[in-house]
């Protein structure tokens, strides 16, 4: 056997069919981040949830998801990606059913947290299954373009689904809908690649798990409490400092652990590190946009839930065009940072546009252009980021590398939602402090708060474009003309 044959990975003959089920699972995960957004006003009213607590219906999911992803990725590597995929699907479905039946805020919060727990097992298993199924450059670009479109556009799809279910059935169906989706996706068992487990005995890095989880929870809790307590309160400062210290200790522990939860070589690689960073920073702007526009269209513009969902479709269209159409064609021709920086600048243009939107601005002049810009930007960031998230890792570390990308996305969403919601709420309170709270003034106050949140998101996205332009140094995928083996395939072969 030649050296070339030795490194050429064997393609899964049913890989395109497998993509269908993997994509369906990813859609369910991403959809559930935003499907509840549009149902939130109805759930808030029925369950008597305060304005300060409403964000926890979203954050409970993203926080549990993000803080446990590294553990979920490692479990996927240890027990098998295929097995973790199916366990995650059924666990997620059960938690969704519990949330749909919730009779109070506490039970809904617990169910959302459980959804996050099982999503933390499911998401890295899905991405790593995709990574090992598609190894050739052209096919890989197409497959990750589809996956990136789902990851970027699934949130907007969730708003359409959420609006339809809320208006014509009940907000609880925004959770119940996950049950049939999970059952259908579970049939992927028959076409997914078989698990190949390492013969090396694995030991779970318990200290690393505890430090990572508690550190991430503390940081997001601190950002969330800043809304009611203020950024200078001892509780907020204490939580943020504790989180930073714990995460610093986590990094130190990973450098010394014999079998670390997250080998530092996974994140220190500039291509992979750039992909993780790009996703984390881009979703801060993206999820802030989802939250604010949902309330802008329903509360300020008096759109119904279903009209609000439909109003998000241009954003989905932008993602599909960029991630599913442009990115697969451009990625083999340009270094990934070209696409990512362009995408971040488009995102920043969209959030900047929204800072000028007023209560009486028409949808066509205000929201529509911003959605198109953001959709195009998201697709150009997500598709190459997911392609390069597992760039050059060993097969036995594909799960943890995939989990790191998902961790970046979910923690960015948690911190972004908490931070931007805090900024917006504070700005609205300042605006209303010396004004008579008439209906028109209240709407103007909300829009003022949203504008301040969009301004912060714009600054973050512009800074991200600069950082990614400097950090992301990976070349475009190329094929060795003589050997016939592309560098990503060889890297995945270990």
Automatic annotation (TrEMBL):
Q: Does the keyword Protease apply?
A: no
What's in the keyword line of the UniProt record?
Antibiotic resistance, Cell membrane, Membrane, Transmembrane, Transmembrane helix, Transport
User: Is the keyword Hydrolase assigned to this protein?
Assistant: no
Q: Which residues form the Major facilitator superfamily (MFS) profile domain?
A: 18-476
Task: Report the main location listed first in the record.
Answer: membrane
For this protein, the parts annotated as crossing the membrane are: 16-40, 55-72, 84-107, 113-132, 144-163, 175-192, 204-222, 234-253, 274-297, 303-326, 338-355, 367-390, 411-433, 453-472
What is the membrane topology here?
Multi-pass membrane protein
Q: Where in the cell is it found?
A: Cell membrane
Recorded superkingdom: Bacteria
Listed InterPro entries: EmrB-like (IPR004638), MFS (IPR011701), MFS_dom (IPR020846), MFS_trans_sf (IPR036259)
Q: Which NCBIfam families match?
A: efflux_EmrB
Protein name per the record:
MFS transporter
Q: Which organism is it from?
A: Streptomyces gossypii
């Amino acid at each position: 056997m030649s050296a070339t044959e030795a490194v050429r990975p064997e393609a899964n003959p049913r890989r395109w069919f497998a993509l269908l089920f993997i994509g369906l699972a990813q859609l369910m995960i991403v959809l559930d981040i935003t499907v509840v957004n549009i149902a939130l006003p109805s759930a808030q009213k029925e369950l008597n949830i305060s304005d300060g607590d409403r964000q926890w219906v979203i954050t409970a999911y993203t926080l549990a998801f993000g803080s446990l992803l590294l553990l979920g990725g490692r479990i996927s590597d240890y027990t098998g990606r295929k097995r973790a995929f199916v366990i995650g699907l059924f666990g997620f479905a059960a938690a969704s059913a519990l949330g749909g039946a919730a009779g109070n805020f506490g039970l809904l919060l617990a169910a959302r947290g459980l959804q996050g727990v099982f999503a933390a097992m499911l998401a890295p298993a899905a991405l790593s299954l995709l990574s090992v199924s598609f190894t050739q450059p052209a096919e890989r670009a197409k497959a990750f373009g589809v996956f990136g479109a789902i990851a970027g556009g699934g949130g907007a799809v969730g708003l359409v689904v959420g609006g339809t279910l809320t208006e014509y059935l009940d907000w609880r169906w925004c959770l119940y809908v996950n049950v049939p989706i999970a059952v259908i996706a579970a049939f992927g068992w028959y076409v997914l690649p078989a698990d190949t487990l390492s013969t090396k005995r694995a030991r779970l890095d318990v200290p690393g798990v505890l430090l990572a989880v508690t550190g991430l929870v503390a940081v997001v809790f601190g950002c969330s409490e800043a809304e009611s307590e203020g950024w200078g309160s001892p509780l907020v400062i204490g939580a943020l400092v504790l989180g930073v210290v714990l995460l610093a200790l986590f990094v130190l522990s990973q450098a010394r652990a014999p079998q670390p939860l997250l080998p530092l070589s996974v994140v220190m690689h500039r291509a992979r590190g750039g992909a993780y960073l790009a996703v984390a920073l881009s979703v801060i702007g993206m999820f802030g946009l989802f939250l604010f526009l949902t309330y802008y269209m329903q509360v300020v513009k008096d759109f119904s839930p279903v009209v609000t969902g439909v109003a998000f479709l241009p954003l989905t269209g932008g993602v599909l065009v960029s991630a599913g159409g442009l990115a697969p064609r451009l990625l083999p021709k340009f270094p990934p940072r070209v696409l990512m920086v362009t995408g971040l600048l488009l995102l920043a243009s969209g959030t900047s546009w929204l800072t000028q939107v007023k209560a009486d601005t028409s949808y066509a002049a205000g929201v529509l252009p911003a959605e198109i810009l953001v959709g195009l930007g998201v697709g150009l960031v997500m598709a190459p980021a997911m392609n390069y998230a597992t760039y050059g890792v060993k097969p036995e570390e594909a799960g943890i590398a995939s989990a790191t990308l998902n961790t970046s996305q979910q923690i960015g969403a948690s911190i972004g939602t908490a931070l931007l919601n805090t900024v917006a709420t504070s700005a609205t309170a300042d605006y209303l402090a010396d004004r008579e709270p008439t209906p028109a003034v209240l709407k103007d106050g909300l829009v003022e708060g949203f504008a301040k949140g969009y301004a912060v998101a714009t600054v973050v996205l512009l800074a991200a474009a600069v950082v990614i332009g400097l950090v992301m140094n990976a070349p475009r995928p190329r094929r060795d003309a003589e050997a016939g083996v592309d560098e990503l395939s060889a890297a995945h072969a270990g």
